[in-house]
Batch of 4 targets.
Target 1
Amino acid sequence: MGNIDKLMVVADKMAHQTRHRRVLKEKYQSENILFYNGGQFEVTCGLISFISELSKDDVQDVVVIDDLSFPILINNIVDFHKTLISQYAKAANSYYQAFNALHEIDT
């Protein structure tokens, strides 16, 4: 196998890895969407931190603007916070496992 052939194999492998990583990231992003009280929320560390701070202040009811710019009344901030963390952990763990599995296949 010549140098050009070897380079082509490496380039194909890198393109394959890039495609799979993109698909895994898109899957993670779609799994990291939470539908709650009629709203759609992308679960981010910023949202989790914001809701955490509200729950520390004993806030019960709060209006949060969702991803579609709709005001959503959150009646139980503690439950919302726990649900956010659960959704994030589930999506992140799934992404981590799939990413590592891809890495093991490619090495």
Target 2
Amino acid sequence: MAPGNADDAVLADVAADVAAKINVMPMFIALPITGLTIFFDWSAVLRFGVRARNLSSDKVRHFADVWKRAPVSPVADLVLVYERLTPFVYFSRKPGTVHDG
């Protein structure tokens, strides 16, 4: 996928929609998800030398797989939350739509 193409716009839009869904969740759910997401982003520095947001999608996928197999339940659960929520958001969108935040 070339940078700046329509797929990138859709992926960015889905990511924004997922973040919006998390932001409207009750605080006792949203706060741990947000905290673990920030931890995930910064913990990539230990493995790759950069934050997860700056990695290629393949490396992020690999890193998420590592987290999914983690013996610490909340860490593995975070990946499951995103694995369930992202397809829900993606498939609930109207085909071909891209929103402006």
Target 3
Amino acid sequence: MAINNTQLPSLTIITSPQMRDNALRFIRNAIITNGINANPNTALTSDWGILAQAFANETSVPLNNCVIACDQLMPDTTSGIYLDRWLNI
């Protein structure tokens, strides 16, 4: 039986601009798919762009805190007092 030495996938931190761009892409595709507008204005200065930026600003911090917390709680990625906790179990 062969041993697979590939690295385990890790959680990635999504930046606020990446979240904003993902939201704008989703909004643009939804507007086009539903036939509302063939060429919607989803520029950064549009209402959609401002809303997407506000959404990204508010959700990026808690989402990234979840990634950090997961790293602290998993025995293969933790360190410091969190590793001590695992070693005491």
Target 4
Amino acid sequence: MAESMRKFEYRGHKVELTREDCLGGWAQTYYYITDRTGYELACDFSESEDTLETWETIMKERIDEEIKEEHPWGVGSDWTSEGERCVIKEGGLVAVEWCEVSYP
């Protein structure tokens, strides 16, 4: 199978879809969704035989559903020693940034 790839941006997210043979010899579709800063929000693979055009529709629907959530992509409850990931919604777009957080 020939390798094929599709990249697109949608509502402030960058999506990369790749259809290629895995090491086992069968075709798989790999996907990556990042915010506009390159922070990875989701990635996975599938053995489905759907076309990349179908996967583009699936990814757009997934982004639309995540944007509707109070904490898109599960962001907002993760802690690090440096701060908390904060979600900023502006005009229907979602951006993820590192924020300094101090609590009394």
